[in-house]
Amino acid sequence: MPSQARRRMSNEARREQLLDLCADIVDREGFGAVSIDDVARSAGVTRTVLYQQFGGLDGMLEALVTRSTERVAETLEQVTSSDAPTLSDAMSTVLEAVDADPKTWRMFLIAAHVGPPSLTENLETGRSLIRGRNESAIAHRRTGGAASGQTDHGLTARMLQAMADEMVRLHLADPDTYTSRRLIDQVAWLEHQLFAEPAPLTASDDAQTAAANPADARANPADAWKAFVAGLTDAGDQLSHIVTGADANEQAGAFAP
Fold first, then answer.
1. How far lies 221's CA from each of 163, 194, 206, 228, in Å?
2. Quick one: which of 66, 83, 177, 195 has its CA closest to 138?
3. Buried residues in 100-131 as b, exposed as e (16+ CB within 10 A)
4. Which of 5, 108, 208, 219 lies 20 to 30 Å from 136, alpha-carbon distance?
């Protein structure tokens, strides 16, 4: 009976089933844990079926990357093709896609550095599209503004992209704490801060700030920025340790909730 059920599955359906099982392993343990034998065993088929479908392990992983890229590209196209979406609208679209297919987004935002080279290449292509769209939107929103001549549109676009990446990672790791609503509200607040003309700061405001935060009132903003960069450097060192680890168990640690 099981063999008859397998024969009734179309070639395309079988291919999707095998890619789903491959994605399950990647999501749980990382790319290094995927093997032809494990996927075949999970599907209840022989190794020959996988070789017929993909030509081997590398072909299966590349097919998984291609499928995942197409899914992410659909979302990116929605975000970049809209006439004038707000940042919060764009984040809402992305988070809806993340909730619908978290494995794919974990693959791009968590596993990219330990996966096939094409995964990183495709991710950077998508990020370039987003950066270009954000840079154009920022330039449009700031044109004529008081600070328009001082705005580095390209750098601002990269900062927004880094923020969005981190928000999606937080949502994937702990969706109950970092809910879609919480993240979207924060993006809406940030958008207002970036693009709304700020009210002038009064002497009374300065006095209240100093009274509430006496230690911070005279802090050098450059020192805060240096501390932020140092934190990013430490995070990069930790990621580098994960990426360069030869042990598949080290890679699997990147996927722990």
1. 20, 18, 15, 11
2. 195
3. eeebbbbbbbbbbebbbeebbebbeebbeebb
4. 108
Locate 64 and state its tokens: 């998984």
Place of tokens 């096939």: 116
pLDDT of residue 7: 57
Say if 146 falls within a structural domain. yes
Instruction: Please tell me what DSSP assigns to residue 114.
Output: G
Write the CATH number for 116: 1.10.357
* DSSP single-letter state for residue 197: P
192 domain-assigned: yes
What pLDDT shows up at residue 42? Answer: 94
- Tell whether 40 is covered by a domain: no
The number of domains in the chain is: 1
Tokens matching residue 17 = 């089933």
CA angle 213, 216, 217 (to 5 degrees): 80
CB 110 within 8 A of CB 183: no
Phi and psi, residue 153, nearest 5°:
-60, -40
Q: What is the pLDDT of residues 159-171, one digit of tens each?
A: 888 898 899 999 9
Query: Is residue 185 situated within a structural domain?
Result: yes
Structural domain range at position 152: 65-196+235-251
The number of beta carbons lying within 10 Å of the beta carbon of residue 26 is 26
